[in-house]
Amino acid sequence: MYIVDEKDLEYRFGDLGPKYLMKGPRMNYAIVQFPPNTDFQAHYHGIMEENFYILEGKIDIVVDNILHTLTEGQFIHIEPSEVHYVKNPYDKTAKMVSTLAPYIEKDKTDAENPTDYK
Predict the structure, then answer these.
(1) How far is CA 73 from the centre of its chain?
(2) Which domains, ranges and CATH numbers included, belong to the chain?
(3) What would the pLDDT profile of 38-80 be if each residue is shown by its tens digit?
(4) Beta bridge partners of 77
(5) pTM of the model
(6) In which region does residue 111 sit, left (phi positive, over 0), alpha (psi from -120 to 50) or beta (all else)?
């Protein structure tokens, strides 16, 4: 058992991206933040499934070239091998919870054409 305070941790890319509260041994748990006009490259996972629960704001998540606009209180589940791309074209910071399981240290593959969606 352990306790983590989000305030003691940093986002991966300064003020955006994931802030991992737990990384392994069975899953990753992170708070993810996207300020206005930021994005995260298209990628997919070979084994891990990923979930996002929107805490604040509005966010676009493209999954297998289909655009999904999510708002506070909505949840999305992304299966392994589904290419996903996250972007915030809105004027408010989006904040969400992300989980990845089962934990695999290196399970992310970059995808091409991240903005080529329907």
Answers:
(1) 15
(2) 1-33 (no CATH), 35-92+108-118 (2.60.120.10)
(3) 998 899 999 999 999 999 999 999 999 999 999 999 999 999 9
(4) 51
(5) 0.90
(6) beta
